[in-house]
Amino acid sequence: MKLTTLTLAAALIGGAAWAGETAPKDVVFAEGGAVESSLSGAPGDASNGAMIVGSKKHGNCVACHQVSALADVPFHGEIGPSLDGAGDRWTEAELRGLVANAKLTFEGSMMPSFYKVDGYVRPGDAYTGDAAPENLPPLLSAQEIEDVVAFLATLKE
Amino acid sequence: MRFKAMTAIAALVAAPLTVMAGPDDDELVINGEINIVTKTAAPAHLDGALPEIYSGWRFRSDETQALEMDDFENPGMVAVDAAREVWDKVDGSEGKACASCHDAVEDSMVGVRAVYPKWNETAGEVRTLETQINDCRTNRMGAEAWKYTSGGMTAMVALISLQSRGMPVNVAIDGPAQATWEQGKEMYYTRYGQLELSCANCHEDNYGNMIRADHLSQGQINGFPAYRLKNTKLNSVHDRFKGCIRDTRAETFKPGSSEFVALELYVASRGNGLSVEGPSVRN
């Protein structure tokens, strides 16, 4: 019921794609970079999150991070710290903020901002080398971020 | 022989390890006679950004390294042999070949690769070898320009590079070239694309580290043109730049563009002191 109301409201405002979703430009980051509530308005699915973290076509987080829980995925990079124990070190809100825009947690971080749509220098259309389309989607959708956060929360030492 | 023995020992010692670290200590001698400097002190203009500079050769596997130690094994030499024939072949309305004006490539082109890109006083711009070659083709031979990254062009650049093998890269960055060099430097540190990654993020801050399955080098261009096992052909510098920028989910620049010429001058200058190596072999 609450969902329906929100959908209606969103439709009226004409912004968000669906119920309870926060658009990239509307995300509120707390001091220190955390994001309190779900970006999609729904809980995350940890097993889909694991897929996103390991897959080259999705988050490709293992390009830079080692994750013991994904030992079956070949070739983990060593650019960032190992994600083992991330669920102990960070709260869910901190993890959400970190994945959405790591630069607000770690200033100048090399880690890409996965829920951001503007402020880029020569943004491209994925890996084609061509210019980005006008409505450039974020690297991960709101629900994909939630799925990744749910997976990271399971990474306990 | 020394190389083979080292490979065997490395295999025994390193077998259980999955992570590689840093550049290795192997020394590159081509055909048993040309000593190649693959590690040396960083040029002063880097101002400590890199403690030492390394050729990309130091970051490749022993198998890939071996292919560059002997020109009979180097798959890039096939294109060089083809370019040797083109050098002597008349083309265009003026009835001339490269050899008509430059005689033997082994004499006239010694040391040329080492100082390019270079300021051209007449044109009032910094020029790459490719631009200079096309200038000779169109303005002096009355022939058609070659496409900037075409196989024929890259092969000719490789033939010319070969004549400087073992000589230190020594591009000028001051005087009239300085503004172009500054532009290239700014590009090197710009975080392009949706992934917001600069050349420096990967090749200055993280050389020696793995990014997924790739062992990051310093992204030096002393070895270009580079024969890549991945696409089984010689690759030009601008081809490589294009690929690296595309991988940041960015809109790339065009090969031969003033932006890539500036970037080439800057990246070449980061390798001042390393030996000209091309055609090199990379994965």
UniProtKB/TrEMBL annotation, chain A:
<dbReference type="InterPro" id="IPR030999">
    <property type="entry name" value="Thiosulf_SoxX"/>
</dbReference>
<dbReference type="InterPro" id="IPR009056">
    <property type="entry name" value="Cyt_c-like_dom"/>
</dbReference>
<dbReference type="InterPro" id="IPR036909">
    <property type="entry name" value="Cyt_c-like_dom_sf"/>
</dbReference>
<feature type="signal peptide">
    <location>
        <begin position="1"/>
        <end position="19"/>
    </location>
</feature>
<feature type="domain" description="Cytochrome c">
    <location>
        <begin position="44"/>
        <end position="156"/>
    </location>
</feature>
<keyword id="KW-0732">Signal</keyword>
<protein>
    <submittedName>
        <fullName>Sulfur oxidation c-type cytochrome SoxX</fullName>
    </submittedName>
</protein>
<dbReference type="Pfam" id="PF00034">
    <property type="entry name" value="Cytochrom_C"/>
</dbReference>
<keyword id="KW-0479">Metal-binding</keyword>
<keyword id="KW-0349">Heme</keyword>
<keyword id="KW-0408">Iron</keyword>
UniProtKB/TrEMBL annotation, chain B:
<keyword id="KW-0732">Signal</keyword>
<dbReference type="InterPro" id="IPR036909">
    <property type="entry name" value="Cyt_c-like_dom_sf"/>
</dbReference>
<keyword id="KW-0808">Transferase</keyword>
<comment type="similarity">
    <text>Belongs to the SoxA family.</text>
</comment>
<feature type="domain" description="Cytochrome c">
    <location>
        <begin position="83"/>
        <end position="169"/>
    </location>
</feature>
<keyword id="KW-0813">Transport</keyword>
<keyword id="KW-0349">Heme</keyword>
<comment type="subunit">
    <text>Heterodimer of SoxA and SoxX.</text>
</comment>
<keyword id="KW-0249">Electron transport</keyword>
<keyword id="KW-0574">Periplasm</keyword>
<keyword id="KW-0479">Metal-binding</keyword>
<feature type="signal peptide">
    <location>
        <begin position="1"/>
        <end position="21"/>
    </location>
</feature>
<dbReference type="InterPro" id="IPR009056">
    <property type="entry name" value="Cyt_c-like_dom"/>
</dbReference>
<feature type="domain" description="Cytochrome c">
    <location>
        <begin position="183"/>
        <end position="276"/>
    </location>
</feature>
<dbReference type="InterPro" id="IPR025710">
    <property type="entry name" value="SoxA"/>
</dbReference>
<keyword id="KW-0408">Iron</keyword>
<protein>
    <recommendedName>
        <fullName>SoxAX cytochrome complex subunit A</fullName>
        <ecNumber>2.8.5.2</ecNumber>
    </recommendedName>
</protein>
<dbReference type="Pfam" id="PF21342">
    <property type="entry name" value="SoxA-TsdA_cyt-c"/>
</dbReference>
